[in-house]
Amino acid sequence: MVHLLIGTLLFAVIVALTFSFERLLVNTLEKSIGASALKLAKAVAEMDVIQDAFEEENPSAIIQPVVEEIRLETDAEYIVIGNRDGIRYAHPLTDRIGKEMVGGDNGPVLQGMSIISKAIGSMGPSLRGKTPIYNDKNEIIGIVSVGILMKDIEISAQSYRNRVLLLASLALILGCGGAIWISSSVKRSIHGLEPKEIGLLYQEKRAILETIHEGIIAVNREGIVTLANHTAMMMMDPEERKLVAGRYIQDVIPGTRLLEVMQTGEAEKDQEMVINDHAVVVNRLPIYDHEHRIVGAVSSFRNKSELLRLTEELTQVKRYTEALRAQTHEYSNKLYTIYGLIQLESYQEAMDLITHETDVHQNLIQFLLQEIPDPIIGGILIGKFNRGSELKVKVEIDRSSSFKDIPSHISRNQLVTIIGNLIDNAMEAALASHPDNRWVKVRLHDKGDELSIEVSDGGTGVTGESTERLFDLGYSTKGESNRGFGLSIVNGTVQQLHGTIAYHNMPTGGAVFTVIIPKTRGDVHDSGRNH
Length: 531
What we know:
The protein is of the alpha+beta class. The protein has 15 helices and 15 strands. Mean pLDDT is about 80; it is low at about 480-485 and about 525-530.
């Protein structure tokens, strides 16, 4: 319906323009034909044979054949020659020779003027060019009138008008057909959405992009940035934030692989890179149009420290759960043992076991309350102690440890992440050794300007490929999936605290991991790894 209405309006406009063009064309034709008629009239008036014939007794006998021959060779409807009194000497219709010229426009010509006029002559309305005929004495002796009938001009104009109207109609039909085809193609490309709906979707997309925590940046086929959300802008250099859209992606993020993704068409997931000193995890995907052609690429990235923080929180929850389970399991075993001893009436052995277990836990708890008063750190140490008892690994807290002077700006959760993962890693290493050598020792110190965390084990030490890849995310000497995150998380957390982590093998076997964390905020230690 809309297309029909638009087509009708366009046709009406074309018709109006066509008639306006016809009117303009008629005026142009009249000027052109009038000028041609006047030029022919002047040429006839200057012919010697015409001028000399006026001196003869019967001028018409000489003038009529000459003029008629000229008329037949030109486009003139008529050529009329008359004397000063307007009596015709030549006329296309011979019966009108000798009669008076009509039209009433001879006056200016007899005064020496050459004119173009419209008048109704003996043959009907016509456009004529009129000029005087002079003799040798420069006296006006006659008049030449060359005329084109107006109906012939109208016929020519109508012919042009019909052609224009036909071409305009064809152009209209082709234009409407093309417009409908383009409209349908565009409709398909935009999934049948109306402009208002597209605008609403654009606003929704912008709102969604600004609310997510991941940085998002998109480029077109030429690698020009077309979109960058607020999070992405905040990760870039302040100078780069001003004009991001419209710039070449390599100028904004040097080293990005978005161009390679467009070339290969293969997505890249969970890749690491650095953007303005921010370590980020990046996903890159090609963008396809409705014909499945690659038209660009989009990259989403998130600060690696945020991912590590989330991983730490999940790890802590898992660690507390395991600690509670180990403690429950261990106490269940002890209770069953005591219950069995009572049933066997071995009361003294039951009392000795209760006393021993009470002394061990009371001594550990008293030591922790005195030297490591922080309940979060103390809680993880007790949990790992119980976990070690369940696994038959002796977990010992060095009695020379002291961990009281912890600055408030150092997160306890980060310290728990470091201690818990180091002990877990040490217990796994100890389990791989002889049952008599399954032990883990923990030393914590807060003397001076640094916090020191040292965890040693009775395992086989760090050897081979492990020395190069020990802190790589996902690497595990066990060769199993979903492992190899503990030491990588520890390394990331130590870097956040501007500390260092180092390790070395002991001569008797096993490895010692040492973490040094500065107490003063902002102190930076060179990262080092001893092999």
